[in-house]
Amino acid sequence: QPAQEAQVLSAVKKIPGIASAQLVSREAFLDNFAKYFPQLSGELATLESDTIPRYVKVKVREDEEAAVQDRLLGVRGVETVELNKNRYTGLIGALSTLRKLALALMAGMSAALICILLNHFKLAGAFQAQVRGTLGVLGARRTQVMLPFALEGLIEGAVGGVLAAGLLLAYGHVFEGQMNELFSSIGYHPYHFHLAGLAVALAAVGMLSGMVGSLWAAARVATT
User: Fold this and answer.
1) DSSP at 172
2) CATH value of 2-81 in 3.40.605.10, 1.10.3720.10, 3.10.350.10, 3.30.70.3040
3) In angstroms, rounded to a whole number, what is the distance separating the alpha carbons of residues 78 and 54?
4) Per residue of the chain (224 residues), what is the pLDDT tens digit?
């Protein structure tokens, strides 16, 4: 009943160690539920008001959680007391594992792109030998032979690095954004992965590996 709810809220606010207390209304509960489970919001809204549990959301200092929990249980009208970190421990662990697996998958795909890029230079040896022969007939110097291969490697390395960086940024935008919103909804601070720096590093590695790979292949061709 509203009168009893007001008494419970008043008693909770008087407990030492509680920074704030808020009675979550039926409408607020339904709105929050519909935000994450829209397919069930219609059925839930048809339930009687006393079917939906009423609860008081409180904030306490971490060092006073145990003492406040005992005091809350002593308030008349309070049936159960749950800490968010205990309530969602299993969910947090599962989501964290899922995120790590997704990050490992994206990192693996990015590394595979760079490996494919490096293998390309090995497979291009025959073509480079033909180019070397043609340029040698024309009297080209060794540096003139190596320069086009270095430019080719730089361009292809940049493409591979950008693709690898794009994968990680797409992962961060889609997956991490959803995860952060979900963590926030259950009372946890969002986990932020600063992927921009990693993406730039991957792009730089791709460019450098492409240029070095082409220079190495060109040097071998030029010395044969």
Assistant:
1) I
2) 3.30.70.3040
3) 10
4) 566 667 776 776 777 767 667 666 666 666 766 666 665 566 655 655 555 566 666 677 766 766 776 777 667 767 666 666 655 566 666 667 777 777 777 777 767 766 776 666 666 666 666 666 676 676 766 666 667 666 766 676 667 667 766 766 676 666 666 666 665 655 555 555 555 566 666 666 666 666 666 666 556 655 65
